[in-house]
UniProtKB/TrEMBL annotation:
Top-rank taxon, per record: Bacteria
Database matches in SMART domains: Mac
SUPFAM superfamilies: Trimeric LpxA-like enzymes (SSF51161)
Keywords of the record: Repeat, Transferase
Protein name: Sugar O-acetyltransferase
Domain Maltose/galactoside acetyltransferase stretches: 5-59
Protein family per UniProt: Belongs to the transferase hexapeptide repeat family.
Classification via PANTHER family: ACETYLTRANSFERASE C18B11.09C-RELATED, SIALIC ACID SYNTHASE-RELATED
Pfam families: Hexapep (PF00132), Mac (PF12464)
Transferase listed as a keyword: yes
Transmembrane segments: none
Organism: Streptomyces crystallinus
Length: 185
């Protein structure tokens, strides 16, 4: 494994303009295209394509195309989870989605972050912070989950919310930035 990929996977600053990462991107482009084109194929065939794209995916997971990601191999999706149309999972860092999660259309799970220093940002430095979604979470349509955020089990995030900080178990959170408005159950 090359230095930039090692740094990326470790959550440290790295340069993404790297031949090994470019090859991983080409692999992802081909596998995402195959998955997104297989919308009418039998479910077993679609699951095979999805399991070739993602790091870990239970056979009961349903992902409606189009689906987009950075690499795929940093994504784990638990049993019974449903991902609606237009999901974008930028997985330069680890994305872990629990069991029985409902993800609305056009949801974005984002792990990359960029350098605040303008010179280093121009040079292309970035790093990734993991995103973790607990079991039985519901992310409404258009939710954006920012780098480094964990959402606790049984939490509901309202449509269009931007989650910039961790959310505890069992709350309803809405807004930009998303804030817990009440305890659930």
């Amino acid at each position: 494994m090359g230095e930039n990929k090692r740094l990326m996977l470790a959550g440290e600053w790295y340069l993404p303009d790297d031949p090994e990462l470019a090859a991983d991107t080409e692999r992802r482009i081909a596998r995402c295209a195959a998955y997104n084109a297989a919308g009418g194929a039998p479910s077993a065939e679609r699951h095979k394509l999805l399991s070739e794209l993602l790091g870990e995916v239970d056979e009961t997971v349903r992902v409606r195309p189009p689906f987009h990601c950075d690499f795929g191999y940093n994504i784990s999706i638990g049993a019974g989870t449903f991902v609606n149309f237009g999901a974008v999972f930028l997985d330069t860092g680890r994305i872990t989605v629990g069991r029985d999660v409902q993800i609305g259309p056009n949801v974005q799970l984002l792990t990359p972050t960029h350098e605040l220093d303008a010179d280093r940002r121009r040079q292309g430095w970035e790093k990734a912070e993991p995103v973790t979604i607990g079991d039985n979470v519901w992310l409404g349509g258009g939710v954006i989950v920012c780098p480094g955020v964990s959402i606790g089990a049984n939490t509901v995030v309202g449509a269009g919310s931007v989650v910039t900080r961790d959310l505890p178990n069992g709350v309803l959170a809405v807004g930009n930035p998303a804030r817990a408005t009440r305890q659930l159950g």
